[in-house]
Amino acid sequence: MELEGSELGTREYWETSYAREIKNYKNHGDIGEIWFDEDSQQRIVDWLLKQENIDKKTARVLDLGCGNGMFLIALANEGFARLTGVDYSPKAIELAMGIAKDQALDINYKVADLTQSESLALGTYSIIHDKGTYDAVSLCPDDPKEKRNSYLSTVSKLLQNEQSLFIITSCNWTEEELLHSFEHLFVKHCTIPTPTFKFGGKVGNVVTSVVFKKKSN
């Protein structure tokens, strides 16, 4: 199954959007919207804080498609120290860097396209987070399947080892669809519960959050 292509899958859309948000931030201190709302973000932060085997001082965290950087700011405020955010929109990185600087937080930000092999220069990480970025890649009007496969291959190589975590939240793909698409590179570690709704006698989720580990070679 393929999603119908959308402007949400283009760099131009996000550059325009973040250029507007930079202006709003400079004029009004408005950090802009958090995609999927703050609840989805806070659920991931809360889950990470409950993991006793994660050392906040040493864990290397990479946020894919970081946008305005608010997920990493939330982690920084909880004591996480080795934080990196990437986005293929230079304007998003400009906004994120500005917000982090104004809050006196030491967060590393870089422009990177995760569908390109050059992004492997980012190094390796013990925690990789994706909230909506796989969705955006899936909405690319130009060969989304190939871009998704390149993206997932990159993510797998950016994970330090088989114990590293890939946490993904999606509003376009169900858990079953993610499991099917990821099975060649990742294995499911756990599901992070998200709110459910009932319609026509069936129960569903508005968003899906799943934690994966990469398959051993």
TrEMBL record:
The keyword Transferase applies. Residues 56-186 form the Methyltransferase domain. One of its GO terms (cellular component) is cytoplasm. Its EC number is 2.1.1.-. Coiled coil: none annotated. It is found in: Cytoplasm. GO terms for biological process: methylation. The keyword Electron transport does not apply. Pfam families: Methyltransf_31. Keywords: Cytoplasm, Methyltransferase, S-adenosyl-L-methionine, Transferase. InterPro entries: Efm4/METTL10, Methyltranfer_dom, SAM-dependent_MTases_sf. GO terms for molecular function: protein-lysine N-methyltransferase activity. Its main location: cytoplasm. PANTHER family: EEF1A LYSINE METHYLTRANSFERASE 2, PROTEIN-LYSINE N-METHYLTRANSFERASE METTL10. S-adenosyl-L-methionine-dependent protein-lysine N-methyltransferase that methylates elongation factor 1-alpha. Belongs to the class I-like SAM-binding methyltransferase superfamily. EFM4 family. This is Protein-lysine N-methyltransferase Dmoj_GI18358.
